[in-house]
């Protein structure tokens, strides 16, 4: 049974490795002129940013209107990570330290 489990683990790791290699092979080279992120997105922000958002500051318009969901998700992930760290560090169980034969109880 353990051998079958090990074979399944290896197959899963090979599949994940293959998927990662295929994903990385599809990424366009950095700084290539024909990449849509280098052509269409900034051009649309500059040309239609004021009309679509209605604000006067183009940088603030991009952050608030176009990138708001991305920023909200990033803040949520960071908040959940901090809460998880606090929960892991604060267990509330007393820990006994023995020094010179004396028992001291402290709470983490």
Cα Rg: 26 Å
Terminal Cα separation, in Å? 41 Å
Low-confidence parts lasting 5 or more residues at pLDDT below 50?
none
How many discrete structural domains? Answer: 1
Kindly report the average pLDDT value.
83
Describe the structure.
The protein has one domain (2-27, 34-96). It is built from four helices and two strands, in the order ααααββ. The protein has helices at residues 2-25, 36-53, 58-66, 68-89, and strands spanning 94-99, 102-107. Strands 1-2 form a two-stranded antiparallel ribbon. The radius of gyration is 26 Å and the shape is flat. The relative contact order is 0.05. The mean pLDDT is 83.
Please describe the topology of this protein.
Elements: H1 2-25, H2 36-53, H3 58-66, H4 68-89, E1 94-99, E2 102-107
Antiparallel strand pairs: 1-2
Helix pairs in contact: 2-3
